[in-house]
Amino acid sequence: MQMLHIASQLTYLAVAANFGSIFTVLLCCAAIILFIRQFRLYEFEPTLSSVVQVKQPAHEQLLTKVNLPFSLEIGKLDSNDSGIYHLTLYSTSYFPCLFVVCREMPSDKVKNLINEPWQKFLEVFRSEMKMFPNLQIYAEEEIHQLKPFSVTGALDCMPRTTYALVIFHIRTDVEYITDEDPVAVITLIHTPDRYCNAPATFLCQYLKCSDGRVLNLKPLYSPEKTRITHKEDLKQSHLINQGNTNCVICWNFPANHVLLPCRHACLCVNCFKRVENCPVCRTRVISFFTV
C-alpha cells in the first residue's frame, strides 16, 4: 500500500510539472506579445517626451473635372554649332484653334496676358500681334492630332527675365463657347542654352476659362508608366505612356487615389486606408483626391 501511495504522489507531481511547464510557456508567449505591441507603439523613440503626437487622417479634396481641349508633347531637339536649335512639338487639338508660338517672351507680359479677360485675351492675337515681335501663328482653324511643328531659335540667349518658348492653344469657335468652358492652354517651355543645359521640358501650363478663371495644370506621377521616344520616324516621334496603372501595393485594383503633396497616383481605395506615407517617395500624405 505504501508503494502505491508513493507511486500516486509521483504521478501527481509529474502531471503538475507538465502543467507548470505549459503555464510557463503561455506566460512567456503573452509577455513576448505585450513586448512586441509596446515596441511597435513607441516606434524606436530614443527618449521619452511630453509631446503627444496626434495622427491626423488625410482629408479628401473635392475637385471639378475639366476636359482639356488641347495637349502638347515635346519631341526631338536638334542643335548645331552656330547656336541654333530645332525643337519638334506635337500638338493635339479637339477644337478649331490658333496654335501660336512666341520666343523670348518677357515673364511680366506672360503674367499680364494670362490674367486678361477672355475677349481681350483673344483680341491680342487677332489685332495687336505687333506687341510681341517674336510671335508667330503656326496653325489656325484646324483640328489635328499629334501634328508636328518645328520651332527654331537661338541657344545663346539669357532666359532669366524671359521664357524661351511660350505656346498658346486658343479656341477660335467663339460662337460655341459657353460660360466656364476652357478656351486656351498656355505652356511655358525651357530650351537648353549656354547658361543652362537642362533638356527641353515644360516649366508649367495654365488653363484659361471663358469666365476668367486661370488654373495651374500640374502633372500626375505614376511609377509604372514609362516614356518611350521613337526617334526614327518623325511622325511617330512623340512621347507615349505605357505600363500598368494598378495599385503599387496589391497590384489588383486600379490606382485611383492621388496623394498630396507628392501627386503620386499609386494606390487603390483599399490600400489607401492602410497607409500614412506615400509608398513611392515616403512623403507624409496630407490630402488626396480621386481620379
UniProtKB/TrEMBL annotation:
GO MF terms, alphabetically ordered: zinc ion binding
Superkingdom as given in the UniProt entry: Eukaryota
Database matches in Pfam families: zf-C3HC4_3
SUPFAM superfamilies: RING/U-box (SSF57850)
InterPro entries: CGRF1, Znf_RING, Znf_RING/FYVE/PHD
Domain RING-type: 247-282
GO biological process, one term: negative regulation of cell growth
Residue stretches spanning the membrane: 12-36
UniProt keyword annotation of Endoplasmic reticulum present: no
UniProt KW keywords: Membrane, Metal-binding, Transmembrane, Transmembrane helix, Zinc, Zinc-finger
Entry protein name: RING-type domain-containing protein
Species: Daphnia galeata
Taxonomic lineage from the root: Eukaryota, Metazoa, Ecdysozoa, Arthropoda, Crustacea
